[in-house]
Specification:
Order of helices and strands: HHEEEHHH
Oligomer: single chain
Largest sheet: 3 strands, antiparallel
Structural class: alpha+beta
Radius of gyration: 22 Å
Number of strands: 3
């Protein structure tokens, strides 16, 4: 019971995992993945990332298939609640990590501690999202301005204040808590 269009992607993913297992067993220099195409390895096609997608083209089908058939699959990236998979990020935020899935469900594969600069980058985005929710619930212009200032593309408090005022004015009907 395969979902639409998942057969080739699953076969390609399995070849990639086999390549990675083989490379992990080697003690010499790593071989270039591109050079191994004749040895049963095939480079994953990436052009589909840039094409229009539909609901059918999701990871939901292989996940449902694994749960239904108890077929163990390794997923390169699944969005789930962290629960410690990334040790230096909050447990209650969603993260995108490798996962395994079978009839017992999806389980993130622990990747441990992120390097400090990467964790700080992620933490900033988490703080921005949490402050945006706090501002939406409380109606605090001060908190939404602080959230905006966490965004690295904002380089002027004066400009941020003007943009915020314009956005709140344009969306006043939808954001009455900021009135």
């Amino acid at each position: 019971m395969e979902g639409p269009g998942t057969e080739n992607r699953e076969a390609g993913a399995e070849r990639l995992w086999q390549y990675l297992r083989d490379q992990a067993k080697k003690e010499g220099p790593l071989e270039r993945y591109e050079a191994l195409k004749g040895g049963g390895y095939e480079e994953e096609q990436t052009q589909f990332f840039f094409e229009p997608r539909s609901w059918v083209d999701t990871l939901a089908f292989p996940i449902m298939d694994s749960i239904y058939t108890n077929k163990l699959r390794r997923m390169a990236a699944v969005n789930m609640v962290n629960n410690g998979a990334i040790a230096n990020l909050p447990a209650d935020v969603f993260v995108e990590c490798p996962a395994s899935v079978d009839s017992s469900g999806c389980r993130l594969i622990s990747i441990g501690v992120l390097p400090r600069p990467l964790a700080a980058f992620c933490r900033r985005d988490i703080d921005l999202a949490e402050m945006t929710v706090e501002a939406a619930v409380s109606g605090s212009k001060k908190v939404i301005l602080q959230a905006m200032l966490l965004d690295p593309v904002i380089d002027s408090i004066t400009v941020a204040e003007k943009v915020l005022d314009a956005m709140l004015k344009a969306n006043a009907a939808y954001l009455p808590q900021f009135s």
